[in-house]
Write a structure and sequence with these properties.
The protein has helices at residues 42-52, 82-92, 97-112, 129-140, 189-202, 228-246; strands at residues 2-10, 13-21, 28-34, 57-61, 117-127, 145-151, 175-183, 206-215. It has 247 residues and is α/β, with parallel strands linked by helices. α3 packs across α4 (129-140).
């Protein structure tokens, strides 16, 4: 396994990123790993490293480069803490839908340009805020992105919001997977119902399921809500998706 630290030239500046190469003979399918609000750190590196070991070249960028280089939280992140919430707002504020689309197009294009990567076999997985980014990625580069997965993605369906991620579905050609938590205030049951109705109307290949007893962030090892058995089930669903769509 090789890990390359990168500085990607982006529309809004330079973004830190890590490229994980499994050492297998290539070229191989590529996957963009969009981390949660904590961005690049050891827990996310471990998750990307594990995925790369399945036989993928994995690119993990810092989506919040417009605000900060990693570590994006210079203090201990505590759910519900006022200081933490304020910092989250600072990180997300510059990421309008237009900015997200510019960035994710650059991530995919960089990954697809690597000689180690099959340019038309790209997948993407996003966690938390990254879940909506993953869906947008499939819409922005439909000719390259064949699979997209989201885990505890927040705000995937926002009623009467022209920036709601679900509105990009008509542009998507990829196979999709969404893993929701049934105790997630960022994606409550009513929003999940409406989102799944939108998926059904879209008509493409997808799976959307709710993990019972799970809280927001349950797949991430350094999260206070980490649930190892359900995280392992989610990992299995993700790798099943990528194997089916990118083989």
């Amino acid at each position: 396994m090789t890990e390359q630290a990168l500085q990607l030239k982006m529309p809004g500046g330079n973004a830190d990123a890590v490229l994980f190469l499994p050492g297998s003979s290539g070229p191989l399918p590529g996957i963009v790993h969009i981390p949660d609000i904590g961005s690049i750190r050891e827990s996310q590196r471990a998750m990307a490293r594990r995925l790369a070991a399945e036989g993928y070249v994995v690119l993990m960028p810092n989506p919040f480069y417009r605000t900060s280089r990693p570590p994006v939280f210079p203090f201990e992140r505590k759910p519900g803490d006022a200081k933490t919430m304020e910092r989250m707002k600072e990180l997300i504020a510059p990421l309008t839908p237009e900015a997200q689309e510019q960035d994710i197009a650059a991530y995919v294009d960089y990954l697809a340009s690597q000689t180690s990567v099959l340019p038309n076999k790209i997948g993407v997985v996003g966690f938390c805020f990254g879940g909506g980014c993953a869906l947008r990625t499939a819409a922005v580069r439909p000719e390259k992105v064949r699979a997209a997965a989201s885990f505890h993605g927040g705000g995937l369906y926002e009623e009467n919001d022209p920036a709601s991620p679900h509105l990009v579905l008509p542009k998507v050609k990829a196979r999709l997977y969404f893993g929701h938590a049934d105790k997630d205030q960022l994606m409550p049951a009513d929003a999940i119902t409406h989102f799944e109705q939108a998926l059904n109307s879209w008509g493409g290949k997808y799976e959307s399921e709710t993990y019972r007893g799970a809280f927001h962030g349950w797949t991430v090892p350094d999260s206070a809500s980490y649930n190892k058995p359900e995280a392992e089930r989610a990992y299995g669903k993700m790798t099943e998706l990528f194997k089916a769509a990118l083989s």
